Amino acid sequence: MQGEVKKVVLAYSGGLDTSIILRWLQDQYACEVVTFTADLGQGEELEPARKKALMMGIKPENIFIDDLREEFVRDFVFPMFRANALYEGVYLLGTSIARPLIAKRQIEIANATGADAVSHGATGKGNDQVRFELGYYALKPDIKVIAPWRIWDLNSRTRLLDFAEKHQIPIAKDKRGEAPYSTDANLLHISYEGKALEDPWVEPDEDMFTRSVSPEKAPDKPSFVEIAFEAGDAVAIDGEPLSPAALLTRLNQLGGANGIGRLDLVENRFVGMKSRGVYETPGGTILSVAHRAMESLTLDRGEAHLKDDLMPRYAELIYNGFWWSPERQAIQTMIDQVSQNVVGTVRLKLFKGNVSVVGRKSPRSLYRLDYVTFEADSVYNQQDAEGFIKLNALRMRLAKMARG
After folding, report:
1. Is 19 marked active-site?
2. In which domain, by residue range, is 379 found?
3. CA-based, 20 to 30 A from 168: which of 38, 154, 309, 364?
4. Annotated catalytic residue 336
């Protein structure tokens, strides 16, 4: 493999697997490695990744640790929430939506450093390999992609640990005992998969959860929160303007304290198999309910129903890794145009795992009391409904007469 690659940008967490990949790239390709570690709000200290990369011979100028929290929420999470995206009706796409940003930044670093390849630590069984690589190719068509899990012979935990010991890569003590599940975290959510969760009949242990109390242990008194929207995006909580990342952080705290946002899901992976995942998305769950409530007041019926028609396709595009595709961007253009009128405030009640809408108001509200009132009015002629009904019934009446 030597000579095939001169410089590669590795998506690097500093954990065992990506540290092994770092050394493996150096050995197999005899190339210069650039490490990229993204702060997406996963809640982990990232400086140890820098120290570990230095220890493994990476030049200081080739170590990138970037705080992408604001860009993540502003340019990826919020546009997705404007679409009310739910994969298979329930999943808020917390892992999926982070991958296009990581891919984008890797390509930017590759361009800045003159790298001719990029690499990731996703396995050959999962969705992430697709999401990363579709992003790479969409943004830099001639980039070389190295996916170690698809080509190396380190196909067991024992072999990985042996490789780490041979190359003096530090191994955390709990790695030998194996964590009971794998996790992925960012500011939108945390996911748990595999190992102890592989039997979909077995309920996950309560001590697994890190972002929310159980609904049973949530406060016995409800919390109330008001979320203000501008052009479809949340901009303030209880009257306090907040940046996108700060706002989602605040909602995570509120949701987690009230046992909101847990999901146990068997989903269909893009590669063809079913997998069981458990997710915590406290702030995103609140935001999703609030956004739909704001739309219910401000969107025309045709706009709202068109968005609902397109949403499953949009969500599937994100889940399958097609964030950078022309069709996702075309749908986004329509959604963003419609969202210009999604302005106002929603009041919510948070109580023991539930989010309830208890109020909404908007300067662009389409709700007209003078039209919907059951009291006497002067704007709606009820006799008009007779012709409306007969015209809509005409095709069914004709069909009955013709067919019996």
Report:
1. no
2. 369-403
3. 38
4. no
